[in-house]
């Protein structure tokens, strides 16, 4: 069992019940999934970029990413409908908790000039999104084998419905928010 999941069940749930004054454990906010997304805008110019991004995202997530394709043609971007423009992975269960543990304890401290995450990145329904400017902050990525530096989005989908409850959950899990 991942150590963050164990900590959630033994330490975080009782603290959340106390802070949110809810007796029912099922009414508490819970992490449901994590979506990792790499939008590769330059894939229209160089097809190798999408392959490199897919390879890197597979190493980071531990599972094969899905290639996302353009829904519409946009002439100004030289984009045709059906062109590969990114890749994404949805993590659930033990992989999700292991990834979040790595993100909090290893990846975020490795970011240059990191002063904490913004507490304003909630979407109104309790989900939290953050962007990373380069994939090389992950320890799985070998810097010598990286062809292109690529950014990525990480979305934490949280049940519970409110931003305040989700903020409380992420704070107790150890997310380093800005003061």
Brief synopsis:
By secondary structure, the protein is an alpha+beta fold. 34% of the residues lie in helices and 20% in strands.
Key features?
179 residues, 50s Ribosomal Protein L5, Chain: A, 4 helices
Produce the secondary structure layout.
Blueprint: H1 3-20, E1 30-39, H2 48-61, E2 66-69, E3 84-91, H3 93-110, E4 128-132, E5 152-159, H4 163-173
Antiparallel strand pairs: 1-3, 1-5, 2-3, 4-5
Class by helix and strand content? alpha+beta
Q: Can you count the beta strands?
A: 5
- What portion of residues belong to β-strands? 15-25%
Helical region count? 4
CATH class division: Alpha Beta
Looking at CATH, the homologous superfamily is: Ribosomal protein L5
- Number of self-contained structural domains: 1
Spatial separation of the terminal alpha carbons? 32 Å
C-alpha geometry: elongated
The helical percent reads: 25-40%
Q: Give the strand order of the largest sheet, numbering strands 1, 2, ... along the chain.
A: 2-3-1-5-4
CATH architecture: 2-Layer Sandwich
Order of helices and strands: HEHEEHEEH
Low-confidence stretches: none
Rg over C-alpha atoms, rounded to the nearest angstrom: 18 Å
Explain what the structure shows.
With 179 residues, this protein is of the alpha+beta class. 34% of the residues lie in helices and 20% in strands. It has a 5-stranded antiparallel beta sheet. The mean pLDDT is 88.
